Amino acid sequence: MSHPNQESPAPVPMLDVNRQNAPLLAEIERAVAEIARTGAFVHGPACKKFEEQMAAYCGVKHAIGCASGSDALLLALMALEVGPGDEVVLPSFTFFATASSVWRLGARPVFADILPGTFNIDPADVARKITRATKAVMPVHLFGQCAQMDELTAAAGGLPIIEDAAQSIGAEYRGDRAGGLGLMGCFSFYPTKNLGAWGDAGLVTTNDATIADKLRILRDHGQSPRYHHSVVGLNSRLDSMQAAILSVKMSRLDDWAAGREQNARRYAAQFARLGIDKQLKLPPVAEGCNSVWNQFTIRVSGGRRDELQQRLNERKIGSAVYYPIPLHLQICFAQLGCQRGSLPHSEQAAEEVLSLPIYAEMTRAEQDSVIAALAEFCGVAQPGAKAA
Q1: Would you say residue 388 lies in a domain?
Q2: C-alpha distances out from residue 348 to 92, 241, 300, 343, 345, Å
């Protein structure tokens, strides 16, 4: 029991978006005020500016804004005319939107297992899952690290690859950035992402001019010109105010990624110094990859993950489980007939993963609190975490 006068450790949030936004508040408010003055709330200059910024940043020719990351995936599939009778191979260990975008079009998500080290889709299992009905392959660059794109491209055998890059803006694979590694790349700017809006926003990147034109039409009810509809599209336009906010924040994106990288390196150094890396497995970075650490996800084996999370909760230290149920075992996909045990690496990951605070604005003292709590859980006698 703590002494009545003893000061309890300060809480450590899993993420604090206000720390990121606060230094830019005045600049963001000016950008939003400009939108209010002009009244260009939809398809305005702010949207075009942000699309151009994103295209340049990702090293692609075209960037098409939309209303959310989920819509970005849906629009990419619609641009390929995916529909009933088609299959799309994708990972089961990912956020729901990756598979739901396929399902909403009447197509069949075909789940592939992951590589246990990086949590990204296994190219060998992708190759096994491809059939004559396969219309596309949709890898996810999970937790900020790109999938093994060379092997995936070979496994796809010419099939279009749609990158789910919702968690990986700025991540690199062999020198090229996420969003420029497949036919299309789909981004989310949900507020908790490395580049977060003040609401929902999304974007699709591509080097294919024909695909880009289709995406621009599809996001705006399928009309071109106005009131002339050659296809049935969506109402999924990027909000001008979100675009203006994201344009301001882009100037800090690489600095934030560098801060996350620094925190990831310090975690690794302290885990090794304390010897807790034997019990808590660190997330590796694959050869040729540069992670932007959207999440710092460890493995806790021996069925102790939930116990560790509870210990952290008691200390008011944030953590999260991404993802507790792999998609092939979700009730809504039961009719696909997937059985427990069919994707063993995905299922094991769901039982062991725990994501720790990693955001750039995290203080040294906050990270020390996390490391000390982990060391105590592992039974290490000297829980203090000195500077690495």
Answers
A1: no
A2: 12, 42, 10, 9, 5
Domain span at 361: 253-377
Mark residue 158 as left, alpha or beta (left: phi above 0; alpha: psi -120 to 50; beta: remaining).
Answer: left
CB contact set of 23 (below 8 Å; sequence gap of 6+):
none
Length of the chain: 388
Residue 218's φ and ψ, nearest 5 degrees, are -65, -35
CB 163 within 8 A of CB 139: yes
Residue where one domain finishes, among candidates 200, 228, 250: 250
**Angle (deg, nearest 10), helices 209-218 and 69-79:** 120
Q: Give residue 199's Cα distance to chain centre.
A: 16
Q: Quick one: 256 exposed, middle or buried, by C-beta within 10 A (0-12, 13-18, 19+)?
A: buried
Q: Measure Cα distances from 197 to 59, 61, 73, 186 in Å.
A: 21, 23, 18, 15
CATH of the domain at 92: 3.40.640.10
Q: Could you read off the pLDDT of 217-240 as tens digits, one per residue?
A: 999 999 988 999 999 999 999 999
pTM: 0.95
**pLDDT tens-digit series, residues 39-77:** 999 999 999 999 999 999 999 999 999 999 999 999 999
Same domain, yes or no, for 90 and 180?
Answer: yes
